Task: structure prediction
Amino acid sequence: MDGASACIPRALDDESKAAFLNVLREHPNNRRVSSVERDLIIEWVAGSIRRPTSQQELGLRNYVKRTFAWDEESQNLLAVGKNYDEHRVVVILESIADVVEAIHIRNDHLGWDATWRDVSSAYYGILRSDVICLLKRCYVCAHDPSKRAKNSRNEGSVERNIEQEAFKGQSFSGRVEGKTT
Result:
């Protein structure tokens, strides 16, 4: 490991990333793209001269040509928006954790919504459930009380909520509001 990479803060450890990748493989989704699928899409989009082997492959190629584009300059596979004006970089299955982690760190661990907003506007192939699953394993968010969800920031908050519910509607004089004892 070089000195430059040692200075970059990490939100996820290698064990969490490996476990997440196993979850993705156990629960496939059509929106996620594997490295093999990415290579095939690039071949089709770049103008493969190989003839389709079936009617199904021909239909899939037509769909791919309408949905994806290859950017020669940046060497990125792009997902084309419905209005053809918005393009998002296609992320392969093996890179999802790294992309989400980088954006989450860049957002200063702001949470699921902020990370999802930036991921979904710039990348294709990452689901909201992927972002939530990864951020639940974020080391910084788990150990920094200010980064936790509002209802889990303080230990004992459940007990305080129970006490608040028990005394709800009672005034300081010991009487229930609206009723006399």
